[in-house]
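User: Continuing from earlier, I have the next pair ready.

Assistant: Great, send them over.

User: Here they are, in order.

Assistant: Folding the first of the pair now:
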Amino acid sequence: MTQRTTEQHAATLSSTAGQAQRRRLQKVGLVISNKMDKTIVVAVERLKMHPVYKKTYRQTKHFYAHDEHNLCQIGDIVRIEESRPLSKLKRWRLVEIIKRGSGVVPVEEVLGQEITSELERVQQGTGQAALGGPGEQQGEEGAE
């Protein structure tokens, strides 16, 4: 009996190996974040029709995708393909970059970096003035 089930199992395996593998699902979307290492967040939009009112509306869903060489930038249009689970949220991988984004960095990021560097420069300047300030004042008072 066990020999018979083994033969049936082997026959099943050989028949599935002969068939073409199931084609993986692919989606096209816009890269909205690339701040993680080797990971991008892709927003995929689709139009759905409301079941009662028959009006179409836009539904957006975010997918985490694996970008092995960190090629994608914000604003790129990419094609992603489903894959085995790569992490807690990553279930997709980058297939191709269809269209490059404009490469323009959002204003918030630029201002955020400038403000941070300005604050650091001011803090370093006030720190030095605070250290040198009282000593200089005491020296000047003693000279008068």
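And the other member of the pair:
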Amino acid sequence: MNEPTKDEFDRAVADSPYADLDIDTRVDYVRRDGQVFLCASQSISSGSLAFPQRSTCQMTGTADMEPICIGPDGTLYSFSTIHVSATRTVPYTIGYVDFPNGLRVLAQVRNIPGNMRCDTPVTLKADAASWWVEPNTHTDEA
């Protein structure tokens, strides 16, 4: 295998990493009919999902990501309460949330009941500044 030339190496470094996250103007969530949805993306060619939205597929490197909305309901996969932080007020809880389309997202978890466990249904919530999940308070039982 041949080593890349200096020009090839410099071009590769200049092109990396992909600038596919718009940090300054991205929108992470939207509200529709009183519900919160995350703004994600899905690759046309591979079906790969990403949050926050990206322009380049993380699996194939193809710039074919299309915007999609996910939520508002998911399932808490796992969670942990943080008790020591140099930058945030403690304690706070974070957890991985699985959404029905297969995307797993790390989220802050708020309004936690004493009996919360993995597999708890959660719902996306938001205010003007941020989004989070809360254990589901509605049931489908009659």
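Worth noting for the second one:
The chain has a mean pLDDT of 87. The chain has one domain: 19-134.
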